[in-house]
Amino acid sequence: MVHASQLAQQQTQAYTAAQAKEAAAVVEHIKHVQARWFACAADAEAAIAEYEHRGQGRRGRRPQSWRYHVVHYRVVADTRRTRRARRGRPAKTDPPPTEAGSRLAVEIEALSNSAEDNGWTVLATIVSAETCADSEILQVYQEQNTTVEPGFRWIKNPAAISPV
Questions:
Q1: What's the pTM?
Q2: Model confidence over 93-147: pLDDT tens digits?
Q3: Cα–Cα distance between 48 and 52 in angstroms, integer?
Q4: Helices and strands: H and E segment counts in the chain
Q5: DSSP code per residue over 12-28
Q6: Are 30 and 108 within 8 A, CB to CB?
Q7: CA nearest 108: which of 63, 77, 74?
Q8: Are 126 and 61 in contact (CB under 8 A)?
Q9: How many CB atoms lie within 10 A of CB 45?
Q10: Is residue 106 a contact partner of residue 33, using CB atoms and an 8 Å limit?
């Protein structure tokens, strides 16, 4: 394994950009979640299970959770004003009609990206360590410009190795 500071810088920038993009999606999700009203706490708990992706996915797909954030949900008992049942002006002594129910409160936490995890590349070669240094092997590998290598340039970046 070889550590490259330039690669680490690229990975840090990519992580920061992806986290910022997901943060915008998380804010929209929170607006949607907090706008929902539930008649009972059981419905709110079912919605939490759906939001935390413990429930069944949609259209046969597995549900995806947030990649760069941790989202915590909790049920909050609340009341809201409702429409009056009768027409006309209410009496001054009548209290405004309210309805008891539940809503969800959401707390988010951004996951941190440890800097020491960035910049590592796996090298698999038959060249011995005494013959050539790891950094030289990496540089030669990334600078190959034969006719076949440009077609495989997608494999020369960390995204191809990161699922491993």
A1: 0.59
A2: 988 888 999 999 999 998 887 666 666 666 677 888 788 887 787 777 777 666 5
A3: 6
A4: 3, 4
A5: HHHHHHHHHHHHHHHHH
A6: yes
A7: 74
A8: no
A9: 15
A10: yes
